[in-house]
Design goal:
single chain, 442 residues, alpha+beta, 3-hydroxy-3-methylglutaryl-coenzyme A Reductase, Chain A, domain 2, Alpha-Beta Plaits, four-stranded antiparallel β-sheet, 16 helices, 10 strands, globular
Amino acid sequence: MNHKPIEGFSKLPKQGKIEWLVNEYLEGNQEYQNILKQYWNDDADLQKLHEEFSENTISNFYMPYGIAPNFLIDGKLLALPMAVEESSVVAAASKAAKFWIDKGGFKTTIINTEKLGHTHFIFNVEPHKLLHFFNFSLKKKLFEATEDITSNMRKRGGGILNINLIDKTAEMPNYYQLKASFDTVDSMGANFINSCLEQFGKTLRQEVATSEDFTQEEKNSLQIVMNILSNFTPDCIVRAEVSCKMEDLKDDSGISPEEFAYKFKQAVTIAEIEPYRATTHNKGVMNGVDAVVIATGNDFRATEACAHAYAAKDGQYRSLTHCTTDNGVFRFWIDLPISVGVVGGLTNLHPLVKFSLALLGKPSAQELMSILAVSGLAQNFGALRSLVTTGIQKGHMKMHLLNILNQLGATEEEKQHFVTYFKDKTVSHHEVINEFNRLREN
């Protein structure tokens, strides 16, 4: 090994962690200590708050926090907070919002809000025997055993909606599931769901042990493998859409509304049938979704996993968005499965998360679902609009221009020169370097 392993790293104070890292991995270079410390917050209490969000924290990692204004969603005008580092995401979303604001804006529908979790277990018993036990005894006991856990959630209108026994023995010997659906109201609900499921596992074990339905050999075969929520929530889904008459699709690229609609629909259809395109297409959707998910303190990894699983639900990975141009009407929509919360987790702790939720009017979880679906749809519209007209690089590289200039150490005066220089040109890295060198030589 090229480095020594360490015992008790988590028990070291923050400065101790930093000194060990710098000495062990960075040749004792103090500049790296300075890099870490310059991102500490001057407010010691706020810094401590951030450090306690995770483990072994030694600094803060900043991301740009931008605003996409002019989103008309279900009659309400909103400005969306977006935490994202990729050039042109906020600009594309903002441009799409502005495009649709005078065409009725975005409309949303909450299709369902059910979330799922499973107790996965192995049981060497005849399926019909287990099903009888579940229907006539176990199911009732599972509800009763979790009454204390679900009490507060039921007062808020949520709780356990249903529990089913799933026979998976055709796919894996002796494998069954207790599949439960939940309504967690305004919380994402992961801790609540997992607490219920862990109780399911305990109750299943207890009830099998005392049941007269099974032999001792069968009882001994029971193995609770795991109790865990699923981040795939195909029944927690929201639809966001835009529509207008075809002739209203006037675009500043110079092509006719009819040609724009035709090319746009073709682009969506390609993403519906071609996985290579669908992957990039949906990545663009998630640019918009994740930026708001992060800004509101929700779990973007769960969001991503769920969206991509849903995109492949019929056996082939496909577009999350869809388009029709029937009877002279252009319609573009997304059905997005997404599970988010506005209480619990970081939502009551992180100052910028609290700011984001206040900016959005302190939405309910369902309202936030709608906002997220709209953000994804807008981002996808903006990307496709560029792709089928001017091409994606013209706008993207203009936004990337400042990144290139910052790498070159350009002054503010030089940056302004480049903005003017590329006003009617497509930005390329090669051309930026050439012009920068020419400018510096004069």
